[in-house]
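Continuing the batch. This is chain 6 of the set; chains 1 through 5 are on the previous pages. Same settings as before, nothing changed between runs. Recording input and output for traceability.
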Amino acid sequence: MQRSRRVTLQQQQIRRQLGQADIFTFFNILTGPELFDPLEALLPVHRERRFPPTETLAMFLRQALSDDRSCQRAVNDAVVARIAGHLPRCSTRTGAYCRARQRLPTSLIASLTRHSGRHMTDHASPAWQWRGRAVRLVDGTTVSMPDTAANQARYPQPRTQQPGLGFPLCRMAALICLGSGAILDAASSGYHGKGCDEQTLLRSMLDTLKRGEVLLGDAFYATYFLLADLYERGIDAVFEQHGARARTTNFENGLIVGKRDHLLALPKPKRKPESETGVRVDLIG
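Output for chain 6:
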């Protein structure tokens, strides 16, 4: 009970701090010692404009964490911050900010997300680990995209939806640190088609994982070849058994090593790449 109350108080404190933060707060974070070098290396070539990339990104962060996420509110807050900082007043029209935000490279935001996530994780308390080992979560979801021709081409809508009636869908997967809650990596694709499943997205992020870590996920990831790949990388995996395999697993075979703990050999499927090798995995009954 005391732990739950402590966590609630910490969450409330974080919300208050975010509510009091203005554009200069985020600008100072971006230009601070932890992010300055990677930010400078990723900044695109740009002219001196009303909204340079670093200031635009600071405004975007403030906008994303605000209760009112409108562009007008973002610009209004920036104007108020400039006046409070004794800087020249500027227009409150949103056009220049919206265009500046569109010029932000996706690679810049993605790289800063990975860098900050890894920094948070590396400085997390060892008490948040599981028996001295870092635990990573993997999960996926889908998000609805604006209904534009470009999005329809890149992020097709479900096949069950009649053409012209649905919205484009983007599939996303992310690696998350269980201890700190930081996002370590993320990948996205269309809703369907070759290479658009959650497991393929995870495979594109496997280099983010380190030897000795534990990966936790649902039954979508419990396949032989992914387990074999993780085994070769020195990463343990805890996945729910896939429904089809759970119906055919015979716990009368194998080795009993503890209560509800059984060691079985997972056979290689007949349809397999020639480079794959056998692997033994722990299955929890």
